[in-house]
Amino acid sequence: MANAEVFTVGGPPGSDITAALLKAFTSACQAPAPSQVLIPKGDFKLGEIAMTGPCKSPVEFTLQGNVKADGGSTQGKDRWVVFEKINGFKLNGGGTFDGEGNAAWKANNCHKTFECKKLPISVSGKNMTFDNIKIIAPAESPNTDGIHLGRCEGVKILNTKISTGDDCISVGDGMKNLLIEKVVCGPGHGISVGSLGRYGWEQDVNDIKVINCTLEGTDNGLRIKTWPSAACTTTAAGIHFENIILNKVSNPILIDQEYCPWNQCNKSKPSTIKLVDITFRNIRGTSGNKDAVKLLCSKGHPCENVEIGDINIEYTGADGPPTFECTNVTPKLVGTQNPKACVGPVVKAPGQA
């Protein structure tokens, strides 16, 4: 940020900069002209902190060093570093936020209590771009979605690498106009829309694009998941997956309207979430299991206008060739499909004889 006033935060190696950072941000936020908050190279401790606007002018936050969560002050908290209510905000610098997650993962029993804390990066707002971000957590770490979005509009996630123990990217209710492009995901649980329908206050999902991405060794691939016996009736529409490379990805293409983790729902009641205008185009690579494509739609609200175009998913396991399963959906087929599609008329792709 040219000609910006710079508020530098620093201290001895290993020192706690929480108070100094809050002071610097507050000064930058109140500055009448664009400003920059700078954490220089070095290792520092950081406690729970909320940097809250509105600010008088744009603020650029440059992290060149490494900040580590102070376990004593953040243990049991729902959040660590929060940026909120700020227009014209930029975060850059090539440094690292180290949440020291290992201590928290050991105490995480949310799969038993179902009271899971907020996710590593939770996003809500409008007109945001995430570019060239790296998010890392071990494959065995619980409830560590890389980026979770909900109630957002106009978000781009570009040129990013995510390795984690849950969904690389999860899309919650109320999401509109999301572009995910050139993201490498793995290990993790893939890229998911949902889960949707668990709560009664949820909103529709519209215009989700996942293109030119690579999934490596993930437990799921491209997934849409909704709860049976859903607490609301909403619609998820305009969801497009295109030009995706798979490398030993289990369940590469999955619509799961019977999503019911830990048996918390009544599967006899079909999902009331409507899925409309869904496309999977040019998906290619290898599967980690034989369930290459599973379209398990709701018998109460069968999926509408699902298109499968040019799918080539190989599987060489001993339990047989890859499979393509459909329930409560008749997909439109374009081009070629491997494995052979379940049902639906074949439509030739443009330019094919």
What is the CATH C level class of the largest domain, in words? Mainly Beta
Order of helices and strands: EHEEEEEHEEEHHEEEEEEEEEEEEEEEE
Secondary structure category: mainly beta
> What helical percentage do the residues reach?
under 10%
Question: Mean pLDDT, as a whole number?
Answer: 91
The proportion of strand residues reads over 45%
Number of domains: 2
Give the N-terminus to C-terminus distance in angstroms.
54 Å
Q: Which runs of at least 5 residues are low in confidence (pLDDT < 50)? A: none
Helix-strand blueprint:
Blueprint: E1 5-8, H1 18-30, E2 35-39, E3 43-46, E4 49-52, E5 59-63, E6 66-69, H2 71-74, E7 81-84, E8 90-92, E9 96-98, H3 101-106, H4 110-113, E10 122-131, E11 134-136, E12 147-163, E13 169-171, E14 176-185, E15 191-196, E16 205-216, E17 222-226, E18 235-249, E19 253-256, E20 274-287, E21 291-296, E22 304-314, E23 323-327, E24 332-338, E25 346-347
Parallel strand pairs: 1-2, 2-5, 3-6, 4-7, 5-8, 6-9, 10-12, 11-12, 12-13, 12-14, 13-15, 14-16, 15-17, 16-18, 17-19, 18-20, 19-21, 20-22, 21-23, 22-24, 24-25
Family: Belongs to the glycosyl hydrolase 28 family.
GO molecular function, one term: polygalacturonase activity
Pfam families: Glyco_hydro_28
Quick synopsis:
The chain has helices at residues 18-30, 71-74, 101-106, 110-113; strands at residues 5-8, 35-39, 43-46, 49-52, 59-63, 66-69, 81-84, 90-92, 96-98, 122-131, 134-136, 147-163, 169-171, 176-185, 191-196, 205-216, 222-226, 235-249, 253-256, 274-287, 291-296, 304-314, 323-327, 332-338, 346-347. By secondary structure, it is mostly beta strands.
